[in-house]
Amino acid sequence: MVIEDIKLRKIDENYYELDVRGMVCPFPQVLISKALKSLTSNEKLEVFIDNPPSVREIPLSLERNGYKVERTKVDENNWKLVVEIKQRQ
């Protein structure tokens, strides 16, 4: 998997998806940060992730930076993060 091949995908009005399964940090964090910079207020980013350290650390980092993060365990090895972009200053 080449990092440049990972694409942000629009799945609904104001709702985007990013799949970073199979990657280890720092790549999921870098891709998520890049995706969030391209979104605007009141949009949401759904991230599929399977690396346990990333699942623990990324939501904490995002919350420290003012994002609202909802973490859901999809199955034994996969999680879904829904990141909400609050009003930008």
Automatic annotation (TrEMBL):
Residues 18-42 form the UPF0033 domain. Pfam families: TusA. Gene3D superfamilies: TusA-like domain (3.30.110.40). InterPro entries: TusA-like, TusA-like_sf. PROSITE patterns: UPF0033. PANTHER family: SULFUR CARRIER PROTEIN MJ0990-RELATED (PTHR33279:SF18), SULFUR CARRIER PROTEIN YEDF-RELATED (PTHR33279). This is UPF0033 domain-containing protein.
